[in-house]
Amino acid sequence: IILLAGGSVAACVTPRYPSRTGPEGPRAGLPSGAGGQYKVGKPYQVGGIWYVPREQPDYDEVGIASWYGDAFHLKATANGETFDMNAVSAAHTTLPLPSMVEVTNLENGRKLVVRVNDRGPFVDNRIIDLSREAARQLGMDRAGLAKVRVRYLGPAPLLGPADGYRTASRG
Question: CB of 1 within 8 A of CB of 12?
């Protein structure tokens, strides 16, 4: 359990697999073929703006959220997972990847715990870019944008290469 600013309490997410690089290397303990990796990353520039990824245990921001979908569906995320617009996930410019955040739609009060595994958004000072499914659950998919509060909850577990999307199989 984590005590957050303002006295509120959040459940801590315990990773299923080691997610930080240690003396054994970044993939120690991961199942063979795991698709993602833990990543803070180096500073980078997009559209003339510099972003500095870093650990941010006290991250708690209010701003505008958007959502992304078709153009990125089934493509690699910034940490090497596969983006599934029908799963609950998000992109953030500077939080460690993958991370868990609580997103609150301040326009309707809906809250959702979301896995951040990609970089973005890079438009109009937005603070988070949600998958289509996350936007739907927060009730902002039709409008496209919403005023939200984003609070960091902790690191997310790493996923295998097929964990980001669904495929049909014959039974």
Answer: yes
